[in-house]
Fold Phosphoribosyl-AMP cyclohydrolase.
Amino acid sequence: MSLPADSPALPDFSRGHNGLLPAIAQDADNGDVLMLAWMNETAWRQTLETGKATYFSRSRNSIWCKGETSGHVQEVVEARIDCDADTILLRVRQAGAACHDGYRSCFYRTLSADSKVQINAEVLVDPDSVYKK
Amino acid sequence: MSLPADSPALPDFSRGHNGLLPAIAQDADNGDVLMLAWMNETAWRQTLETGKATYFSRSRNSIWCKGETSGHVQEVVEARIDCDADTILLRVRQAGAACHDGYRSCFYRTLSADSKVQINAEVLVDPDSVYKK
């Protein structure tokens, strides 16, 4: 599966359901996993061209530049793909909060074995002030 | 979307294609994203019960305890879910290499805007010695 270092390579969008691959956004500075969203080839190309993380919204069925409403954009520092080229990892600089609930990361809930939930972070921004004004 | 801290919660497998949700494995010690695989509810429950990351292999169409062949198990330190409960984040202690290509992380390829590839890591183990003996 390995490719020579100088070969061209792209994510293999044919491997995704409906041509969508999972894309993980990771904080380039502290390594926190911020969110997972989905990309089609258009979103991927737009991400590379603009340097801003751009996804495909499955609920809205459209391309979505993260932060276009909230201002909470993700500046892409680096893009990686996994060994079988069906998952994308973006290392980003996140403005504000990645999560629509106002947390910096969408993964603000920790589950224990008995399915109890603990909130592992503080709310960073009031979601109402960002999304409902 | 937020839940009270004491409420039970599980990943919502009904939101995944074929009941499968993406599960990210992250190194609990240094924050490296190691791999992404898929979980159904059985894999999720087995992961919580055994403390070892267990996925659903789409190619083999079966439950797969990571490391059962290679010995490269992932001891789960913590499980998180995202805001809409359709992505799982496992913080793990990885034995050996997560990647079948012998790298510690599957994300050993960095792509530049012109789609050139750079290998960003060293091979940790010889894959032939692990998977083909």
